Structure formats: structure tokens, C-alpha cells
């Protein structure tokens, strides 16, 4: 079945550092890919998405490119802020439901 | 007002008790979902419903049941709660008519089973 693998956290960075959170997936077809973010005490909210190979999703300075050849969808941001501290979930949708990774906690210090 | 609401936000119960978690939405979406979140395990799908007459089991439905009372309401029941059902529970909705069908999540219900 479908699966999503994310790098384990926590990822600890100083403000303005570069961020990469790795995500790879296994799917039988051509899934849509998503990054969701969960701020402390809140539910998940969509951060960005991509539906086909080479698509780049972007939002709030975050980017991720759908790489079919490496089955990856790594999340990047050039300069993180303290307010980016949250848990980040990579997810895929191949049929009608989402399959999530285990989440990666990001902690950004001033 | 929030588009997806969950009640209660926190609940403590004892082993063997029956409890119900409720989800309501004002987004007008046909599709609704229940997930549980456990540390280190991410989100796992319990049940989902594509319309009022459609209920489907997810990855981990054992020990749970659901009821779709109306388009806007989707309840999750634990028939006889056990400690390993202690988790954070999320409801979500989506509209299949929208491009890429984003799911919208409620704020979660934190459940502790003693």
C-alpha cells in the first residue's frame, strides 16, 4: 500500500537558518502530494501541494518540488522564523483518502 | 466562527465507558473524516464518509463506530474505551468538487482513557 516516510525530528534551527525536511513516498500510481502544518494546540492546516511530476508547491516562503524519479517531496525554506516552530506532515493522496507521514517537529530559536 | 468544530476539546474517561466525540462543519462539504494522532505515529484514518449514506472503514476502525447524522455532523463513538485509545482525535472535511480536494481539520479532541 501507499506510504510516506519523513525524517525524524526534532529539527532544531536558529532563526534565519535554511530548512530542509525530507519526505519520500511509495505509491502504485501518480499521487497528489501535500505538506500540512500543525501549530501547537491546533489542528492541521494545508501548507502547500503539488499534483504532478515537477510541480512546485509554495506558500509562506516554503517550497516543495514533486520529484517522480526520486519519489520525493522535500520541504524547504530559505530563512526560518521562530513562528515556523510546528509539526510538519507530508501526505499523499492516490485515491480518495490521505496517507500521512509520522510528522517532523521543527523548533526555531531566536 | 470556526468552520470545523469538535466537542469536547478534552475528555477523561474510564476503561469500559462508552463515549462520543462530535464534529460539526459549516463548510458545506460532503466528505468527512476521523483521524487519531499518536506521538511518533502521525495521523491514522479511523473512518470516513463521502455523504450521509456512505460510511467507510479506515486503517484502524476496530473499537470505533461512527454516525453521519447530517451533512454537517459526523460523530465518533468508542463503544468500550480502553487505555490504548488515549490519543488526539481530529475531524476533517473536504469537497471533491474542488481542485486537489484540500482537507480542512478541526482543532482536535484530546482523550485520556484511565
User: How many helices of chain B?
Assistant: 0
Number of strands of chain B: 11
- Assembly type of the chains comes to heterodimer
Strand content of chain B: over 45%
Helix content of chain A: under 10%
Major sheet of chain A, described briefly?
6 strands, mixed
What gross morphology of chain B would you assign? Answer: globular
Describe the structure.
The complex is a heterodimer of chains A (110) and B (114). With 110 residues, chain A is an all-beta fold. Helices cover 0% and strands 52% of the residues of chain A. The model of chain A has no long low-confidence stretch (mean pLDDT 94).
Topology:
The complex is a heterodimer of chains A (110) and B (114).
Chain A: E1 3-6, E2 11-14, E3 19-21, E4 23-26, E5 32-38, E6 44-50, E7 56-59, E8 62-65, E9 75-77, E10 86-93, E11 98-100, E12 104-109
Parallel strand pairs in A: 2-12
Antiparallel strand pairs in A: 1-4, 3-9, 5-6, 5-10, 7-8, 8-9, 10-11, 10-12
Chain B: E1 4-7, E2 10-13, E3 19-25, E4 31-38, E5 42-51, E6 54-57, E7 64-70, E8 73-78, E9 87-94, E10 104-105, E11 109-113
Parallel strand pairs in B: 2-11
Antiparallel strand pairs in B: 1-3, 3-8, 4-5, 4-9, 5-6, 7-8, 9-10, 9-11
Summarize the structure.
The complex is a heterodimer of chains A (110) and B (114). Chain A has strands at residues 3-6, 11-14, 19-21, 23-26, 32-38, 44-50, 56-59, 62-65, 75-77, 86-93, 98-100, 104-109.
List keywords for this structure.
A: 110 residues; mainly beta; 6-stranded mixed sheet; 4-stranded antiparallel sheet; 0% helix; globular; B: 114 residues; 7-stranded mixed sheet
Amino acid at each position: 500500500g501507499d506510504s510516506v516516510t519523513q525524517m525524524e525530528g526534532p529539527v532544531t534551527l536558529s532563526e534565519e537558518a535554511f530548512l530542509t525536511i525530507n519526505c519520500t513516498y511509495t505509491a502504485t500510481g501518480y499521487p497528489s502530494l501535500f505538506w500540512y502544518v500543525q501549530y501547537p494546540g491546533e489542528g492541521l492546516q494545508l501548507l502547500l501541494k503539488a499534483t504532478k511530476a515537477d510541480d512546485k508547491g509554495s506558500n509562506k516562503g516554503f517550497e516543495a518540488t514533486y520529484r517522480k524519479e526520486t519519489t520525493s517531496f522535500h520541504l524547504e525554506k530559505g530563512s526560518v522564523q521562530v513562528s515556523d516552530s510546528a509539526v510538519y506532515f507530508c501526505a499523499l493522496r492516490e485515491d480518495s483518502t490521505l496517507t500521512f507521514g509520522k510528522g517532523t517537529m521543527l523548533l526555531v530559536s531566536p | 466562527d470556526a468552520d470545523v468544530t469538535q466537542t469536547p476539546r478534552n475528555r477523561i474517561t474510564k476503561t469500559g465507558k462508552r463515549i462520543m466525540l462530535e464534529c460539526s462543519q459549516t463548510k458545506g462539504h460532503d466528505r468527512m473524516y476521523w483521524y487519531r494522532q499518536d506521538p511518533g505515529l502521525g495521523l491514522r484514518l479511523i473512518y470516513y464518509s463521502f455523504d450521509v449514506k456512505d460510511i467507510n472503514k479506515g486503517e484502524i476502525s476496530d473499537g470505533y463506530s461512527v454516525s453521519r447524522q447530517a451533512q454537517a455532523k459526523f460523530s465518533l463513538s468508542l463503544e468500550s474505551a480502553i487505555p490504548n485509545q488515549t490519543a488526539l482525535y481530529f475531524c476533517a472535511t473536504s469537497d471533491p468538487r474542488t481542485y486537489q480536494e484540500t482537507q480542512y481539520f478541526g482543532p482536535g479532541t484530546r482523550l485520556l482513557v484511565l
